[in-house]
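agent: user wants the full assembly modeled, not chains individually. Plan: 1) parse entity lines 2) check alphabet per entity 3) run joint structure prediction 4) return tokens. Steps 1-2 passed, two entities, 226 residues total. Proceeding.
--- entities ---
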Amino acid sequence: DADVTQTPRNRITKTGKRIMLECSQTKGHDRMYWYRQDPGLGLRLIYYSFDVKDINKGEISDGYSVSRQAQAKFSLSLESAIPNQTALYFCATSVTGQGKETQYFGPGTRLLVL
Amino acid sequence: DAKTTQPNSMESNEEEPVHLPCNHSTISGTDYIHWYRQLPSQGPEYVIHGLTSNVNNRMASLAIAEDRKSSTLILHRATLRDAAVYYCILKSYGAGSYQLTFGKGTKLSVIP
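--- prediction returned ---
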């Protein structure tokens, strides 16, 4: 089984709808992240969480919210989806280790907002 | 995090070595050099990281210039499975450090 799983893997929705992307991990890591990737570009950080009670905004948090339900679960919500949120979304996990810290990514969720 | 500069794309023949360069002239003394790669339709995966000395692991080698202003990821024998976008990222080991700042990376094509 994969260490970092994302559901759904693909999603089509309409403008204005609320949707939730889910991420689960079995690695036992304390830190979790949500990134988005647009075609031909690198990943940009949306939100990150260092533990269940710690949630922080990343580079591009507007229009998104998150919930850390447990150490192993981190959900990303689009309260009212818009077409420019069409992108590939990745969840990642890591353990603290400062500069040596490596991140482990899920397989991604491809989202299309019509 | 300091900025890195990589070529947009590179090609290699299968079973030949590949040297992927990265410039990071503004690197600070607290920055580690990380490399990730992203295979088509997959999430990024960690390849290797280093601070000052050259590093080897089962996937690749990392050669770091003496002044640390550049580094090179070395794939010793490219395979078709190595075709991916390779990202060179600087990551500080300062307190509170957490973020990986991805640029556009280098798209490596491997020719059979």
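agent: reporting back. The beta strands of chain B are 9-13, 18-23, 31-38, 45-50, 55-56, 61-64, 70-75, 84-92, 106-111. The mean pLDDT of chain B is 91.
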